[in-house]
Amino acid sequence: MKELEQGLLMQPWAWLQLAENSLMVKAYITKQGYALLVSDLQQVWHEEVDASVVSQRAKELNKRLTAPPAAFLCHLDDLLRPLLKDTTFPSEAMFTCDHVAEALTLRVRSELSGLPFYWNFHCIPASPSLVSQHLVRPLMGMSLALQCQVRELATLLRMKDLEIQDYQESGAVLSRDRLKTEPFEENSFLEQFMVEKLPEACSVGNGRPFVTNLQSLYMAVTRQEIQVRQEHLGTEDLQPSSSASPPGAENQLVNQPKELISSAPSLPVPEKESTGTSSSRQRPQLSKVKRKKLRGLFN
Question: b/e per residue, 145-175, with b = 16+ CB within 10 A?
């Protein structure tokens, strides 16, 4: 996964109110480019550009400004970051958005080095895979996490009821009657919740309740998704192919010189060396024989 894609996935959603447009926005900006995702709960738009596109667009919109792409990207980050973190924060820029056909243009106007600065985010409809990656899969993961949390809480309540029952059987009495509760019945609780609480609880509205209350869980789920994906990719990289050497071959190759040295006496190559040494031992014996013959002739 590219840096911008992974960085954007790990960002929380922010709620942005622009005139009559209520938008959910997430952005990730680096010195190499930026990625932006925008949704009005009807459609999702996306833009991802690199430094070359930033440089070209800056020249077209800001002819009086000359700066490297990293400077424009840094300025855009300074404008967006406070706004997306806190909608009540007084922004130094003015934001507007226009719908043109299926595209969305988010316009920014501010100042840079005392000169007017303009920028247009040209967002196109996001691909289904991108919508799944940033909304469908995280929301499914959050639903499963919340369901698991409800089960854990129900288990704790049943344990508390058993604890209270033990106290009562031991003769304990409540000092205040208003603290008395009925034993927890999970099925009854769920039925009552569906009838009384569900309509209010699932009121999505303009997306602000989701942005305000659930972003910590959203980021935890997306981090887990990225971690699982990286582990899966790492496992695939580590799996040997049919023509690859068996597991541990690299370690065997690395340690081979030491093994050869330590096991040299038992390998066939050292046997040749031993034959060489034996022949070298025979040569001095031949020379000694000749010396004996020479001494015999003189005598």
Answer: eeeeeeeeeeeebeeeeeeeeeeeeeeeeee
Residue range 269-283, pLDDT digits in tens: 444 444 444 444 444
Structure tokens at 288: 């000694």
Q: Which residue has the tokens 């129900």?
A: 154
The 10 Å CB-count burial string (b at 16+, else e) for 229-241 is: eeeeeeeeeeeee
Low-confidence winner among 20-24, 251-255, 290-294 (lowest mean pLDDT): 251-255
Write a three-state SS string for the chain: CCHHHHHHHCCCCEEEEECCEEEEEEEEEECCEEEEEEECCCCEEEEEEEHHHHHHHHHHHCCCCCCCHHHHHHHHHHHHHHHHHCCCCCCCCEEEEEEECCEEEEEEEEEECCEEEEEEEEEEECCHHHHHHHHHHHHHHHHHHHHHHHHHHHHHHHHHHHHHHHHHHCCCCCCCHHHCCCCCCHHHHHHHHHHHCHHHHCCCCCCHHHHHHCHHHHHHHHHHHHHHHHHHHHHHHHCCCCCCCCCCHHHHHHCHHHHHHHCHHHCHHHHHHHHHHHHHHHHHHHHHHHHHHHHHHHC
pTM assigned to the model = 0.70
Token pair 């025979």: residue: 282
Q: What is the pLDDT of residue 298?
A: 42
Which residues are CB-contacts of 218 (< 8 A; sequence separation ≥ 6)? 12, 13, 138, 142
